[in-house]
Amino acid sequence: MEKSSYETTQEFSGKQKQSCRNWLDLPEDITGSILSRLRAIDILENAQLVCKTWLKMCKVNPLVWRTIDMDNDMLEDFYYGSLESMCHDLIDRSCGSLVKINVVRFGTNSLLKYITDSSSCGIRHLRLEKCRWITDEGLCAVASKFARLVELDISECSMISYKTLEVVGRSCPLLISLKWKFGFYDKGSNSMDYGDSIARTMHGLHHLSLSGFKLTNEELRNILESCPHLETLDLGESFLPNLEQDLGRRCVEQITRKLRLPFDCFHQIQH
Length: 271
Description:
The protein is an alpha/beta fold. The chain has 2 domains: 24-64; 65-270, Ribonuclease Inhibitor (Leucine-rich repeat, LRR (right-handed beta-alpha superhelix), Alpha-Beta Horseshoe), CATH 3.80.10. The protein is 44% helix and 12% strand. Pfam families: F-box-like. InterPro entries: F-box_dom, Leu-rich_rpt_Cys-con_subtyp, LRR_dom_sf.
């Protein structure tokens, strides 16, 4: 006997309910891992308000705060001072388990010191973008505590120069990824200083992105020779006049995953 459409619908609905898992039934470590992938503001204003269980977890479970993402979208509603205070609080919630943190615009030397002093696991991923209050002195003072750092983004930190880059290179033997966008007002001298610092101290790099720099053939050659493990090289927003053809071909041959050169360089390679 054929089932009625009503019975079929009810049966399908029942199967749907059975297949939908209650998130509250997930193990706490899995839930903590999922929540840690959200931006800090999304956890504070949304996730922790879902239920009492999640509220408690967001307050006392360090797994939620192994990663802290405080991007600049938050600046519409908060002042710099309150953002730094909030960041202190979230770092405290991590109970020393912090391994990855993104700080955009509001970072200071004192916050950077608090980050390094509070992480017993060792920071592995650090993004400091447009943090104009972080200086050479501030970053150099904590560089020795970045022994486990593998990824660093210091784009448009206007008070950081090549001197800090060399200290970081010597202090971070595990560093495999560096991203640096050179802002218009950034501190520094000849860009050769930056290229030489990378070539001298960052031999383990796999990923390098430099934007806004004026590079030379010698600088690029030194980087390629000193960083043999480079898989991705992004120079698309830098300047590299008169690229030598043999050097261009070497880039194509050595960089196996992603190569982005200034636009006019590809024309020079082809000719």
